[in-house]
């Protein structure tokens, strides 16, 4: 294990498992020994995802028929290892560390703090969203919200990335904020506006936010008793303006290189844009001006502008 620690070897994973099996056969002292000297034998990822996870598994405890003090000693060594690995390699070990520290309040808090500290420098939006979802699953919605907010600051969704894998995470983060209440929703919307420039994604978020009042998710019998939020007031106004801008920018981007076979699709896109425009108080006027503009700027595309006239006047 020591000889191959810094050189990649295709058999390492298998050997790590085999070493843990041997240590289990030898007994609890051997397991404590490899947990305490993990850094000379394993990478942080191996130590958390294979070694500590196997040692802490139900099978190992049954196999060794450990008494309470022995189980506690192993658990304590595994938690120490988990926190050391999370400090060393938060990107790959933070989630494993949280899982391994779940049953110990202080260790769990420490692991969470390591994630928060690493969030600004060493974590990607995917990793942060994964940990945020885990926090919600564990029953910590406010921590999930904090991590989701940090994840949003690492994300940049361009106007044409309407199938980006992070879209589900963004929708989840907005639904979580919405379920927590108006303040949380007001805090996440500026982050969404800064990170997401895709019109269809923004309009989807806007539609979901206007369907129910914030803070009412999961409260039975309170479906419609809450006051729905107006798109003309904060915080939804900012989201509405950003969505309208995104539709305008995307329209111009699409029109620069449009071919006749995409005309039908483009008209449908404009119909979607109109639905969003109409959420604004003077939306019908804004949309009419927008269409007039298009007819002026792109009058060379006669066939397309004829289709625009047919549909939107």
From TrEMBL:
Residues 127-304 form the ZSWIM4-8 C-terminal domain. It comes from the Eukaryota. GO terms for molecular function: zinc ion binding. One of its GO terms (cellular component) is Cul2-RING ubiquitin ligase complex. InterPro entries: ZSWIM4-8_C. Keywords: Metal-binding, Zinc, Zinc-finger. PANTHER family: ZINC FINGER SWIM DOMAIN CONTAINING PROTEIN 4, 5, 6, ZINC FINGER SWIM DOMAIN-CONTAINING PROTEIN 5. This is ZSWM5 protein.
